[in-house]
């Protein structure tokens, strides 16, 4: 046990001490936060930057509608309405005003012009011409301003106080979606989807980053020939176990840091969002996960990692160079990619036959089943059967890998063929 | 407490149809310096790996200090320096050494103390510079060899096994290694080392075992082996290159049965009826300027060539341990 501890400690500490680990662990969350916030931030900024105020409004309605639109385009009653030009013309001078406006747009004096006439009042028809006519975003803003202006005008005509009208017409909709299970309402639908995806993603990241890390570690011990010194002191089984546990602990530490910072970010999101000028994101109520389910999740996580870690270690012991390693690792990587390409279809339709089957296969179950588990209710016997399958496969992989590892660690040269590999497994 | 440090009984190991070690039995007395000699590919490394339980023999048993080498904790009393040396390159020297000590069951505090002692002793630590705080790959090759050597001895093993310890060592480290081997012997530790360099073995070893192609050729104390192979050998050194007359005498098969010709130095084996005095008279008669003429025991090198044969050496060159 003391030796297993020594190996585990070394594997853990030597990795945690690297610059690479510190950078990824600390800057990972920053990176993810930026990726999450930046698009939202940019689109909010983009909306603000849209320059629709510097247009000309040719108002032939004789009702002051043009001024109302200008107010809205200029940023509401508090904004600078003067930026938007309003030209009030008599209906018979429309053509002249339009050709003058066209000329001004061509000379870049104005961005475009909006024409309001009697038809606008009667049939809600208006026309716009300008350089930005193909920008859906900008046209939508002008349309919105016009619609709101017409609405206000009508309400006022019906005798409502203009101030009340302004207040009443400002409406924001914020719709939440909630999931219902056998046990009743249980958190938001989006919440559990995100939760499931996060679990699957974390495991996937763990395997990709740290499974490969194990492979590199084993290969390093082979190429530097330090392996022989080590195995003259401890058995290969202890060495393999220490490696898998130590590297696993590194991964867990990293993910704990990530999860904690994600939670912290979620907690303090409002001030951050507000500071960036964005509306505070709606609260996502995380699903209520029963303890049994958490236990199952943890088991999937550990078994899934153990399974792939053992396979990667065997690959590392099989080869003597990085080039060989990349090739030999392909089958293992394929198994992993296979699980992740089904992640999206499963998330969209967790009750489908495909989702069921993929979540049963031991090699993809650790990634897919947690996603299904958080999206829909899985009967306990199905969970138990899947977990058993993963556990048996994990044990088998560890057993096979330990044998390959035992023989391969001191073998150099050509990568073994399948036949030679079978002999290694028999003779170990 | 047994007087036998290592006891190998009929160990055999086969790899993919070729026999690396065949039915090998040998005893290494406690406190001895023991040489495992043989050409490359003779099975030395395989034998050593079986002693250390790095690989299991197909048949036969290995006892270390009186117990099977599979007994728990027994490996902690062995120190091993493999032929192919290597260390974790990115690790700090001290941490690496502490790790190696921990693998042998030494507690951290004791390890730290011994590491400091050893680093100072092998001049890897001085008031100006402590290489123990550097990473392994910042050290020169010679220094890395020292670190590896410290790692082998840090847990104060009772039996030290060195596989081709002299290969690749610079002269200073080779001397340090010899000194250490002698010191270990004085402390009643057992040292087993493999080598194909007979000179080293002859000077250092109490006992030897010669193996070739997986078979044991002979074993015993160096003195015993030599007297067993005691023929009438003559060491001859000349002042100048031998004249034709001298060469003719040395080629006379009535007198000389075998000769190792080094141009001015010769190791001569006399024939059964050959007389050393007669040889000396004839050489002087032929005008040879004799600097040394001595009746000697055969060198291990000579015995080795005798028993294993030059052909086997050549053949063995391509193989591995």
Number of helices of chain A: 19
Order of helices and strands of chain B: EEEHEEEHHHEHEHEEHEHEEHEHH
Poorly predicted ranges of chain A: none
Number of helices of chain B: 11
What is the strand content of chain B? 25-35%
**CATH architecture heading of the largest domain in chain B:** 3-Layer(aba) Sandwich
Helix share, percent of chain B? 25-40%
Report Rg of chain A. Answer: 32 Å
Molecular shape of chain A? elongated
Largest interface: A-B, 23 and 28 residues
- From the spread of the alpha carbons, the general shape of chain B counts as globular
Structure described in brief:
The complex is a heterodimer of chains A (428) and B (321). Chain A is of the alpha/beta class and 428 residues long. In chain A, 69% of the residues lie in helices and 6% in strands.
Could you explain the architecture of this structure?
Chain A is an alpha/beta fold. Chain A has two domains: 2-37 and 187-427, no CATH class; 52-169, 3-Layer(aba) Sandwich (abc type-2 transporter like fold), CATH 3.40.1710. Helix content of chain A is 69%, strand content 6%. In chain A, the strands form two sheets. Chain A has a four-stranded mixed β-sheet, sandwiched between helices. Chain B has 321 residues and is of the alpha/beta class. Chain B folds into three domains: 4-65 and 158-227, P-loop containing nucleotide triphosphate hydrolases (Rossmann fold, 3-Layer(aba) Sandwich); 86-150, no CATH class; 231-296, 2-Layer Sandwich (Alpha-Beta Plaits), CATH 3.30.70.100. The A-B interface holds A 2-3, 6-7, 10, 13-14, 18, 220-221, 223-226, 228-234, 410, 423 and B 16, 49, 52-55, 75-76, 78, 80, 82, 84-91, 95, 99-100, 102-105, 148, 151.
């Amino acid at each position: 046990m003391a030796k297993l501890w020594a190996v585990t400690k070394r594997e853990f500490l030597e990795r945690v001490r690297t610059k690479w680990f510190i950078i990824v662990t600390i800057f990972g969350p920053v990176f993810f936060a930026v990726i999450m916030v930046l698009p939202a931030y940019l689109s909010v900024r983009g909306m603000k930057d849209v320059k629709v105020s510097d247009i000309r409004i040719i108002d032939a309605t004789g009702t002051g509608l043009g001024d109302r639109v200008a107010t809205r385009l200029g940023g509401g009653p508090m904004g600078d309405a003067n930026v938007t030009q309003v030209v009030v013309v008599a209906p018979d001078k429309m053509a002249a005003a339009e050709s003058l406006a066209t000329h001004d747009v061509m000379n870049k004096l104005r961005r475009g012009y909006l024409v309001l006439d009697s038809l606008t009042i009667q049939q809600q028809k208006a026309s716009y011409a300008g350089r930005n006519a193909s920008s859906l975003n900008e046209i939508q803003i002008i349309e919105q301003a016009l619609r709101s202006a017409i609405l206000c005008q009508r309400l006022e005509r019906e005798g409502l106080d203009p101030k009340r009208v302004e207040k009443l017409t400002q409406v924001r909709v914020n719709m939440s979606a909630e999931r219902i299970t056998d046990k009743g309402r249980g958190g938001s639908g989006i919440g559990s989807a995100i939760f499931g995806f996060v679990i699957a993603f974390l495991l996937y990241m763990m395997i990709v980053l740290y499974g490969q890390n194990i492979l590199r570690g084993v290969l390093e011990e082979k190429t530097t020939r330090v392996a022989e010194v080590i195995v003259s002191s401890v058995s290969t089984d202890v060495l393999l176990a220490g490696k898998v546990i130590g590297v696993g602990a590194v991964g867990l530490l990293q993910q704990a840091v990530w999860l904690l910072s994600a939670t912290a970010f979620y907690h303090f999101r409002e001030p951050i969002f507000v500071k960036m000028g964005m509306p505070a994101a709606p609260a996502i109520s995380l699903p209520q996960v029963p303890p049994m389910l958490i236990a199952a999740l943890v088991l999937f996580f550990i078994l899934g990692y153990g399974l792939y870690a053992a396979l990667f270690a065997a690959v590392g012991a099989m080869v003597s160079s990085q080039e060989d390693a990349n090739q030999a690792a392909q089958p293992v990587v394929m198994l992993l990619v296979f699980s992740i390409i089904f992640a999206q279809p499963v998330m969209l339709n967790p009750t489908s036959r495909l989702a069921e089957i993929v979540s049963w296969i031991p090699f993809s179950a650790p990634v897919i089943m947690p996603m299904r588990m958080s999206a829909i209710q899985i009967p306990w016997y199905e969970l138990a059967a899947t977990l058993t399958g993963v556990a048996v496969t994990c044990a088998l992989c560890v057993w096979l890998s330990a044998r390959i590892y035992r023989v391969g660690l001191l073998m150099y040269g050509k990568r073994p063929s399948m036949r030679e590999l079978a002999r290694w497994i028999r003779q170990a | 407490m047994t007087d036998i440090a290592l006891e190998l009984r009929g160990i055999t190991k086969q790899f993919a149809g070729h026999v690396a070690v065949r039915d090998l039995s040998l005893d290494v007395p406690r406190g001895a310096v023991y040489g495992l000699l043989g050409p490359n590919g003779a099975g030395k490394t395989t034998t050593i790996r079986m002693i250390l339980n790095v690989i299991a023999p197909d048949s036969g048993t290995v006892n270390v200090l009186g117990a099977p080498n599979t007994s728990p904790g027994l490996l902690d009393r062995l120190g091993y320096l493999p032929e192919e040396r290597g260390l974790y390159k990115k690790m700090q020297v001290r941490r690496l050494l502490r790790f190696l000590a921990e693998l042998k069951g030494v507690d951290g505090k004791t390890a730290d103390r011994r590491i400091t002692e050893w680093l100072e002793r092998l001049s890897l630590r001085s008031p100006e510079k402590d290489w123990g705080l550097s990473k392994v790959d910042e050290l020169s090759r010679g220094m890395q060899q020292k670190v590896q050597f410290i790692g082998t001895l840090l847990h104060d093993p009772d039996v030290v096994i060195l596989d081709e310890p002299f290969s690749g060592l610079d002269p200073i480290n080779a001397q340090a290694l010899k000194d250490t081997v002698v010191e270990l012997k004085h402390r009643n530790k057992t040292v087993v080392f493999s080598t194909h360099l007979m000179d080293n073995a002859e000077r250092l070893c109490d006992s030897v075992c010669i193996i070739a192609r997986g078979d044991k050729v002979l074993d015993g104390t160096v003195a015993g082996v030599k007297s067993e192979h005691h023929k009438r050998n003559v060491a001859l050194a000349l002042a100048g290159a031998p004249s034709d007359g001298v060469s003719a005498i040395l080629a006379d098969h009535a007198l000389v049965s075998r000769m190792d010709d080094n141009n001015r130095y010769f190791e001569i084996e006399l024939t059964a009826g050959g007389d050393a005095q007669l040889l000396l008279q004839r050489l002087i008669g032929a005008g040879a300027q004799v600097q040394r003429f001595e009746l000697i025991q055969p060198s291990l090198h000579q015995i080795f060539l005798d028993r294993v044969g030059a052909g086997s050496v050549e053949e063995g060159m391509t193989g591995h341990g």
